[in-house]
Fold this protein.
Amino acid sequence: MEAQQYVEITGEGKFTETASQFVAEVTVEIRAAKKETALTEAGEYWKEAVAHLRMNGIADEEIVEGGLSCLTPWYSRKNVGETASRTIILKVKDFSRLSRTLESLEPLRGNERPP
């Protein structure tokens, strides 16, 4: 009998892919005594944040509405309040542009609500 011949090839491969899109979530959260106030102010600050993002180079197609929520009451010194939050999702291909824009939002963080 004749022995069967075969060829065995083994190897190792490597695939590296660069990220094609970077995703970030920005959440605006407001605490207020009344649910309506919290929702209204969250909407106003959300609009301000979106306008700021647009002014700093984020295109409309890179901005996605991330949702709205009104959470259960919070308590502070026996006072009850509501927390409302609204999220902005950013889908950007250029990481450095996204990073710079997110850093530019920092001054908005310190804004105090009107009395």
Notes: Strands lie at 22-32, 63-76, 79-92. The first helix runs from residue 35 to 55.
